[in-house]
Amino acid sequence: MSEESAPGPKESPPAAPRAGSREVWKKGGRLLSVLLAVNVLLLACTLISGGAFNKVAVYDTDVFALLTTMMLLASLWILFYLLRTVRCPDAVPYQDAHAGPIWLRGGLVLFGICTLVMDVFKTGYYSSFFECQSAIKILHPLTQAVFVIVQTYFLWVSSKDCIHVHLDLTRCGLMFTLTTNLAIWMAAIVDESVHQTHSYDSSHSNASHLRLTPDPERAGSSVGGDCSCNTAICQIFQQGYFYLYPFNIEYSLFASTMLYVMWKNVGRLLASSTHGHGHGHGHTPSRVSLFRETLFAGPILGLMLFVVGLAVFIIYEVQVSGEGGRTQQALVIYYSFNIICLGLMTLVSLSGSIIYRFDRRAMDHHKNPTRTLDVALLVGAALGQYAISYYSLVAVVVGTPRDLLGGLNLAHALLMIAQHTFQNVFIIESLHRGPPGAEPHDTTPKESCHGLTFANLDALHTLPACPPTPRLVGTNPVGPQETMAIILAPRGHWRRRCLKDISLFLLLCNVILWIMPAFGARPHFSNTVEVDFYGYSLWAAIVNICLPFGIFYRMHAVSSLLEVYVLS
């Protein structure tokens, strides 16, 4: 794959030279689109954050109006893009095979479906007291449903595009759509934080008066009067869409990452081998078989922890929200499970990094915007959990309580830091490894057959050191000359099997560690050590800002670990 600034190859289609002449303005076009995104995002952040406080004269109808307008404009631009690329086939001369892998697009579709269900619940909730509500509250979820459908189709069919027409307009449109998703994400985060704060206030009347409180216009069910949510169906709709918020949050973040890669690929020139379709370096196998060539220890242990984690989460939610003083017992169970899970994940990640010391596969140094973004998101999103853990460390070490719960909290914070660190090291190194058979001695047939690549089937019989019945891992016909590429690997290669087990184990553990905080587990507030040390206002601000990044880290780690499993 050639560098982005390199001139187009001779085999490039006719559209490439015309677009290539514009590449001198690439930085200017990117700067223009980034400035547009920053200004729109700051406006959205101002309205959304202002609407979260009851002393600010910004109502949720203002936020809904802005988000509805942004989604309509983004949907119109997406339709223009799709129409333009259909009517002009030369508009997309190249496709980036690394962008938009099937598991990322599949996750986008899954979260998109859940978001549509959430929009149905939201529409039903606001329709329950339509007489005293603004029409924009019903129009907003309906518009979001249309936006989700249009955007999901757009990213499914166009996420690999390297478009070469209307470069500046395309960059601005992609950045505006990305900003729209970030604004939706922030609105969902604020709504969920307000909901969590309102739940905390219901059980703790001595919290600080400076905290986030639900705006009367925002929470119709809490103000009484004509807008009170008294019917059973209304309460089902209300609880339903709050529980579906995590899927909406992940959908917005998944779409944002894919849009960013598309933005990076605007006007990009690739080698002729990647024209139209294909995989630039051949890293992704044509078929992926789950649990193939694994030792089954990783998947089994991961499934056990997943099931146990679900049980712990249910017990925690029941005991914390129920009557009586069983919060202490629930926290001990919750922290004990997390300590065991995080400890195992740390050891497994460290084992994977050690295994790579014996791996002879070459490092992949090719330009890959998707991988660069994955690494940046893993490192950046981990900072949120780092911040919470260090604040907890200071509170536990400096604070006065010296009980069992304090010790568990301390161990949990330390293991959370270690687990994020070693897992990031393992994932990042895995993403930079070459595919199976990419050892430095691949192309030179010597004494050993392991990892060798042959261009002709007859060459196999000229190597006396080869075992009599080698196993063919993959064969790809390249022409009528009966030549094919054959990669030889010993059956049950221990390194590959261990890496696949490690990837699946970490994947399942990250899923359960995503489910717990995403669906309402907040030991940060149930455990009063940090609340007493920092005060509710400061601690709530820290958790509400940092925890969404920690939740996103888990789901993004799942996506990256699935790619690591495929490449192992």
UniProtKB/TrEMBL annotation:
Signal peptide coordinates: none
Descriptive protein name: Proton channel OTOP2 isoform X1
Stretches for region Disordered: 1-20
InterPro entries, per database record: Otopetrin (IPR004878)
Domain of life from the UniProt record: Eukaryota
Family: Belongs to the otopetrin family.
Record field: transmembrane: 31-51, 63-82, 102-118, 138-157, 242-263, 295-316, 332-355, 375-398, 502-521, 533-553
PANTHER family: PROTON CHANNEL OTOP, PROTON CHANNEL OTOP2
GO MF annotation list: proton channel activity
